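TASK: fixed-backbone design
INPUT:
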């Protein structure tokens, strides 16, 4: 008879071994082989891959509403997989979720499991003259993000991987690599304008035109931040400076001097 794994405990192994031996004597079949494969094959396989740590940070260096949730880095060191993704978090309190994963058919699926507790409370209803039960979900206070965006950078560390998985998913949705080149731009007079860069933000010179073709606005952005901007009349004269607040406003140039 094959020796049983030590992991189940010495006393338990002896008892299970005697039971298997008695069945083998009666049936004359290699029952231990079947039992071992059934009880231990799947757990041993599952234990090969482990999630060691996760860390999440607020990081608005990318606009996932433009580029989508994406993978910014993935690398293997020995048997350790280091993975960083950017997600549009939509205001969730990630500390109230438990991270888990599944790995099948060379596909790694990253999951968030809600750990908010549901509390059952009984209250006496005078009108019905009976006790009634109410279910209340306890939700931790969420962080309020200025400007309304909630882009999170999540870092995962796994062990047991000898290569980067062919496919990576987050909450059952496929992730692509984050863009490394601008995702949109225009060419005007051999100049690149109206660019959405690889992070999903306006970058460089942005120009708007009147219906008759004259330049109406010129703005300069740096990764989504308005650096400077001017409003022009149809004769090409700058009349206002532009600034970005809740909505774009213009200040007459005379007031800025």
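OUTPUT:
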């Amino acid at each position: 008879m094959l020796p049983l794994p030590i992991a189940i405990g010495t006393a338990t192994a002896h008892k299970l071994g005697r039971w298997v031996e008695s069945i083998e004597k009666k049936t004359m079949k290699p029952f231990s082989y079947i039992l071992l494969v059934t009880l231990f094959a799947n757990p041993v396989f599952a234990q090969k891959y482990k999630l060691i740590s996760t860390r999440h940070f607020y990081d608005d260096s990318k606009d996932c509403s433009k580029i989508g949730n994406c993978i910014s880095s993935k690398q293997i060191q020995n048997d350790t997989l280091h993975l960083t993704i950017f997600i549009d978090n939509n205001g969730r309190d990630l500390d109230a979720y438990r991270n888990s994963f599944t790995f099948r058919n060379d596909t790694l699926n990253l999951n968030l499991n809600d750990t908010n507790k549901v509390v059952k409370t009984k209250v006496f209803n005078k009108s019905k003259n009976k006790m009634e039960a109410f279910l209340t979900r306890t939700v931790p206070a969420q962080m309020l993000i200025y400007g309304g965006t909630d882009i999170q950078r999540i870092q995962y560390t796994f062990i047991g991987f000898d290569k980067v998985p062919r496919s990576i998913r987050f909450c059952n949705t496929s992730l692509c690599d984050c863009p490394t080149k601008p995702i949109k731009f225009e060419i005007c007079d051999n100049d690149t304008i109206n660019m959405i860069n690889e992070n999903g933000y306006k970058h460089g010179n942005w120009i708007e035109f009147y219906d008759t073709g004259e330049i109406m606005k010129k703005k300069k952005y740096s990764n989504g931040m308005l650096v400077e901007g001017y409003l022009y009349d149809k004769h090409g004269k700058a009349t206002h400076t532009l600034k970005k607040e809740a909505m774009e406003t213009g200040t007459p140039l005379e007031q800025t001097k």
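COMMENT: Residues 10-27 form the longest helix (18 residues).
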